[in-house]
Amino acid sequence: DLDECAASPCKDHQYCLNTDGSFSCKACDASCVGCTGEGSDKCKTCASGYMKEDEKCTDIDECSLPEKVCVKENQDCVNTSGSYKCVCSEGFEDKDGTCVQT
Questions:
Q1: What is the pLDDT of residue 4?
Q2: Which GO terms describe its molecular function (predicted)?
C-alpha cells in the first residue's frame, strides 16, 4: 500500500485517511482550523470561539466572561458552539432591536 496521505492531498479543513490502495479526505472537527486527524484533540489551531484546554479545542462560554457581551436591557446571553447569541429575556420580545415587554 502506498501512503497517498504523505503528499497531503486533502484541503486545509480536512485530514487524510490512508486506506488499502487508496485514501479519503475527512472533515476536521468544527473546533479546528486545520487538523491531523479526527476530533477536537487533533487540531493544528483552534477555530475562533474555541481555546486549547487539556490538549483539546473547547468552546469558550462567552456568556460567563467577566465583560458582558449582551449589553442591551432585558437581554440574555445564550452560549452556542463557537459563538453566542443575545436573546430577549423571558417576558420580552425583540422590537426593532430593543427588548420590550410582551
A1: 94
A2: calcium ion binding
